[in-house]
């Protein structure tokens, strides 16, 4: 038996707690959601992601060439950084409660992330409203910020998503 849209079975017998994200009503504007644990970036992460996505940028693949560039070493692929920032928010905010991602904007990478750095992400809900065309759903705007282990901002992105409203029993 399903709860209708989240795809999780309803509890029978002893109480069951299923990890999930937050429904539209549970998300609070201007609250800082910190996502833990952090994720330490490895050379393997960088090379695999970069080659899987057919990105031939030497800044991610060529250690000798990158040593002669302004940062003196290879930098993490910014798309991996972005994907990890969004991924770190899933368990706390969107697992089973999101309908769809609608878009992203204002993406920036003000400081590079290097092999061995640990990425920590936090999210602030900046706006939300009920959907005018999709009953039972609401639109939420989130601002993700990624920081390295020293607290330096390495990535920012605004993300708009469609969320389920909390089901009524």
TrEMBL record:
It comes from the Bacteria. Residues 33-141 form the MaoC-like domain. CDD domains: FkbR2 (cd03451). InterPro entries: HotDog_dom_sf, MaoC-like_dom, MCH/BMMD. Belongs to the enoyl-CoA hydratase/isomerase family. This is Dehydratase. It comes from Arthrobacter psychrochitiniphilus.
């Amino acid at each position: 038996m399903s709860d209708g849209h989240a795809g999780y079975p309803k509890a029978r017998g002893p109480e069951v707690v299923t990890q999930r994200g937050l429904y539209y009503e549970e998300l609070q504007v201007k609250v800082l959601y910190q996502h833990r644990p952090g994720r330490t970036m490895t050379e393997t992460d960088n090379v695999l992601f970069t080659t899987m996505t057919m990105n031939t940028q030497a800044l991610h693949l060529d250690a000798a060439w990158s040593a002669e560039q302004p940062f003196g070493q290879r930098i993490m692929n910014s798309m991996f950084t972005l994907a990890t920032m969004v991924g770190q928010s899933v368990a706390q905010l969107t697992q089973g409660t999101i309908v769809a991602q609608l878009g992203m904007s204002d993406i920036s990478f003000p400081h590079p992330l290097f092999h061995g750095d640990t990425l920590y992400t936090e999210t602030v809900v900046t706006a939300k409203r009920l959907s005018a065309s999709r009953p039972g759903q609401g639109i939420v705007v989130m601002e993700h910020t990624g920081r390295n282990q020293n607290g330096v901002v390495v990535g920012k992105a605004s993300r708009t998503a469609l969320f389920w409203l909390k089901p009524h029993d």
